[in-house]
Amino acid sequence: MDWINFPTYAITSSILWVIGLIMIYLGTKNKTIRIAGIGLFIAGIVVMITFIALLWYHLQRPPLRTLGETRLLYVFFLPVIGIIFYVRWGYKWFLSYALMMTFVFVLINLNHPETYDKTLMPALQSPWFVPHVVVYILGYALLGVSTLVSVYGLYKHYFDTFETKIILLADNLVYLGFAFLTLGLLFGALWAKQAWGHYWTWDPKETWAFLTWLGYLLYIHMRWQHPKKISLSLWILSLAFLMLIVAWFGINYLPSAANSVHVYSNG
Amino acid sequence: MASKPIISKDNSTSPKRSTRKEYQQGFIISLIIFILGTSLELITGGHGATLPRWPVNLQFGIAFMALLLFLHFYYKQNSIIKWLSRVPAAMSSVVLFTFLVLILGLTKQNEPDASEISILTGFSHLRNSYTFLLSGLYLLTCLGFVALRRLTPITFKNIGFALNHLGLWIIVFAGSLGSGDLERLSIYVNEGQTVNYAYDKLQQPREVPFTVKLVDFDIKDFPPKLAMIEQPEMIVPKDLKNNFLQIETGMQIKLNNWDISVKEFLPSAKKEGEKFVATEDTFNVPAAFIVATSTTGQGTKSGWLSCGNSQKEPSFMFLDNKFALAMTIPTAKEFSSMLEITDNKGKTELVKLIVNKPIHVGAWNLYQTSYDEEAGKWSTLSVIEAIRDPWISVIYTGIFMVLAGAVYLFWIGRNPKN
Fold first, then answer.
1. Integer CA distances (angstroms), B410 to A52, A91, A175, A181, B160, in order
2. Domain count, chain A
3. Lowest CB count within 10 Å: A52, A141, B45, B92, which one?
4. Mean pLDDT of chain B
């Protein structure tokens, strides 16, 4: 079981997700259809978990190291977040967006057969590795979706009628995403103390993760202090995502990151 | 403290206008701090600010905290204190700080060939510059006052606020004050050798309050990988970069129209004539016997591959005019030092030091850092880092407060005001 088997699992999951989503839309008035839709959607997630678990077993290390592997994790977490938000708050369109994002990651991974690399350098062999990366991936997934919400909100604000529920959803996503971002940053600090002897060394990845954190911090305070300044808040939210993009993979292209301890691969 | 108010007490202005004015003032203050910091760097010749060490840093810290508390409780109504404890000031301090961190994130820092102008203005060593120091001080002042204002009286309702804001304050406060006390030394020890000194950043030796004897140094490698390379440059084709598998006997892979199989893999071998044989000799190399069959009718080839090492040449296998096979140099899976450590009370202990698992000796932590990379597997040298950070428990307190604050944010899920 490795990346060679990815297309089979990805296509099975995708079909289940699409049918599930269609049934959720069709079942607006019919509870049975709706629940069956949710069931199929969850089945799609289970297929993806199976692939990840088998890949993990095959690699003999958590599949969290390369960009391709983190993309795979998004393929898992985005539908999970989408379905939870749908079941909890009834955001149907949100589920569609989450799924659309998922397909972007599925397509990238289908076109880039990924690394077969089983090696894991000694510094990464730590109990902190999995929680550090998993909370980051969850945080990034939530904040990525909040960016879509902010762009949608800006469009509504300038060209259509803005509805308050849009920014409330953004708040919701940012609070959850920011909580995960904070956990990721601090888990990283605690791990760094174990591995490198200091909790903060201004490594370029750390610097950018911190900038991302500051960006969302500004959004939260803006919303707290000036709840009526909708467009400014939405702009801050969109810009914070730029920081996130740099922190996530843009870092590999920055001259300042040449000696980063976080650049492991060019995959 | 200054009695001349910088904020107009004119109540006729609408709250909206006065907020805007406060933001403007905040950003002017930020700009002044920026210019002041840069000027201080220029005046002092771009050497950066030196933070005080123990015990002056502690005295300074206590004085700073006492000043914040004193001003908060006795000069609460003073317009400057009032201004400093409102959101616009805090926001401007965060924006200034963010701006400086952004510069940190975009530029190479502490480069030996930095330009004169960037040295003189402090941008080549921003983290140690007056600008960064003053910005941090401004942030701590605003954050401190905001927190004091919201938290008096402290109630259960603002527990989340307290955890996040006080936690962050503690981290920034103790992190900057404590940075002068952080000691980071390197111990170089060979197998059989006993040392009681370490080297600092400038390679100056210093005595440490313990002795370290390296009993044994050990490296375990991952198996090497099979790589396809392009002639004549001998580089890896871009599209194949990630498609290399670890070599093991019986492994099969298809790379660019060649079916490749590994007939035999010897983790430690030496060359004898045209072939490799297993050996435990020093400077042995990994080697593999490969059979490659063309899927486009160019026949079958076979031969030995080896990545070589610092003493031995690598062996390649040429498939055609364009492609050849190579073995990658194995990467370290684990390296460890068996150490006999004697502390200053004369207590001796035998411990294994590995990456990610530091050991404590009194106030010091020891980390497995490196080895003689030239010798690789045959290194008899271990590089150990010894670190002393007396402020770490204060930092941990702050970190755990913010961690709890993050859980609180997750729990409330959104701005409770809306």
1. 26, 19, 6, 11, 11
2. 1
3. B45
4. 88
